[in-house]
Specification:
Strand content: under 5%
Oligomer: single chain
Radius of gyration: 20 Å
Order of helices and strands: HHHHHHHHHHHH
Largest sheet: none
Number of domains: 1
Number of helices: 12
Structural class: mainly alpha
Shape: flat
Distance between the termini: 34 Å
Length: 202
């Protein structure tokens, strides 16, 4: 019977892997486009900062009216967009680094790190090591930067972390801001798909 044929099973697995890989690339691309959109909205907000907080309040209300159900245009998130544009004046850096990690990671970095060079270091390490949001928070709170860079110590903690694409890939595809930006279905990204993505990319 066809369903028990080894060649057929291999074909199905190959197709599933291709689908998973395409979904992963689509999620990364969506994350990039969304972050750049947020960055540019932030620049517009900053260009009209003399209008005060009422401007952000009105903008949020109007955007949510135009895009019902989207949480990405809350007053709080619009303020993060403005802060992102104010923090990173180099658009090329935003494209090359900031837009390569999920928006939730960027919010953590804006909240917890005040120095741009240190923030850039954590962005780079997040991309290299595929840190999840929880791991990023742990690394910041345990002062990994201070231990590795300032004290010139090499930690083996990175070697214990999952492969670069694992946690970060999963979080990118499950980031609620991505679901707002592009209406994926939650059931499109299942545990077995995540495993296949990690297998193919490792």
């Amino acid at each position: 019977m066809l369903m028990n044929n080894n060649e057929y099973i291999e074909i199905i697995e190959k197709i599933k892997t291709k689908i998973s890989s395409a979904q992963y690339r689509a999620a990364l691309n969506a994350n990039y486009e969304m972050t750049m959109l947020y960055y540019n909205i932030g620049r517009i907000i900053n260009a009209h900062k003399e209008w005060g907080n009422k401007f952000i309040d009105s903008l949020s209300a109007d955007l949510r009216l135009s895009f019902p159900g989207a949480k990405g245009y809350s007053v709080r998130n619009l303020k993060y967009m403005a802060k992102t544009a104010l923090t990173y004046t180099d658009e090329e850096f935003v494209q090359r680094a900031v837009a390569q990690i999920p928006w939730g990671h960027n919010i953590i970095l804006l909240d917890k790190i005040g120095d741009n060079s240190i923030r850039s270091w954590y962005i780079k390490k997040t991309i290299e090591n595929g840190w999840s949001r929880d791991i990023l928070v742990h690394q910041i709170e345990s002062n990994l930067y201070g231990r590795q860079v300032l004290a010139d110590k090499v930690s083996n903690f990175e070697k214990r972390l999952p492969s670069p694409q694992s946690e970060l890939a999963v979080q990118t595809m499950k980031d609620p801001y991505i679901f707002d930006f592009i209406p994926f279905r939650e059931d499109m990204i299942e545990r077995d798909i995540e495993k296949r993505i990690n297998t193919e990319l490792s």
